[in-house]
Amino acid sequence: MRLRLYVDESGDHTYRNLEDVGRRYLGLIGVAIESDYYRNEFQPRLESLKQLHFPHSPDEPVILHREDIYNRRHEFGVLSDTARNDAWEHDFIEFVRSARFRLITVVIDKKAHRERYGDAAEHPYHLCLTALLERYRGHLKSVGGKGDVLAESRGAPEDLSLKKVYKDIWEQGTFYITGREFRKVLTTKELKVKKKKNNIAGLQLAELLAHPATREILTARGKISPISPSFGARLAEAFRDKYDRIGRKLFD
What are phi and psi of 247, to 5 degrees? Predict the structure, then answer.
């Protein structure tokens, strides 16, 4: 069995303005999908869903982007119509509910982490990626599979830094897992990095799930107020059974 982990984030990766609750937390999400299923069912179904709700030329594909959807920008302006918005939300939630994937979410309370470790505090994104890869390795081992990782591009300097973190883990391991154990299940020492504008279905799903998945963990730990009865809350219910026992982690 071959899988790929699609990675995206919710929040700010810096240690600036940590008193602002909107910048205090960083969530990193990984969506693990089996490759044959992704090619034959998952990706075509998502494209059909986009074509149904946001008709477009295949030469100029619609890219699902949370901020644009939320603000009804560009192609998503049609969602200002209540009936069309309700239909889109219903169909997307049903897509998430029925799709076959495993979800991993790692969240860091940057303010608490910085106060605890001071200047020795790790880079938030790198710390979350380490925990994400440990859990992905556990999932691959449990299903007897192998896989690679594809993350959303965040800019040249950030991408190079992230690739180095990944390569170091592949070669040397982490505090808990040896590099040899990672190499048994990860098929390449290179982290793949691409932009969502390339119309990568897995990255688009990760983008739309990252925010509600992060909020769900923070709510459960009493870090933020409960999620209101919203699209995000209903979406969280749809993907809740996509976790396994090691699928969630909060650093503080």
Answer: -80, -10
Domain count, the chain: 1
Q: What is the Cα–Cα distance from 221 to 234, expressed in whole angstroms?
A: 19
CB-count exposure of residue 101 (10 Å: 0-12, 13-18, 19+): buried
CA distance 76 to 97: 22
Quote the DSSP letter at residue 223. S
Q: Domain residues for 89?
A: 2-251
Please report, for residues 47, 62, 70, 140, 198, the alpha-carbon distance to residue 59 in angstroms, rounded to integers and kept in the order given: 13, 10, 24, 35, 12
- Alpha carbon of residue 62 to chain centroid: 19
Give the pLDDT of the chain (252 residues) as one tens digit per residue: 999 999 999 998 888 889 888 899 999 999 999 999 999 999 999 999 999 999 999 999 999 999 999 999 999 999 999 999 999 999 999 999 999 999 999 999 999 999 999 989 999 999 999 999 999 999 999 999 999 999 999 888 889 999 999 999 999 999 999 999 999 999 999 999 999 889 999 999 999 999 999 999 999 889 988 766 788 889 999 999 999 888 999 998
Q: What CATH number is attached to the domain comprising 75?
A: 3.30.420.10
Whose structure tokens read 């990675």?
7
CA dist 234 and 252 (Å) reads 27
Q: Which long-range contacts (CB under 8 A, 24 or more apart) does 227-231 make?
A: 231/89
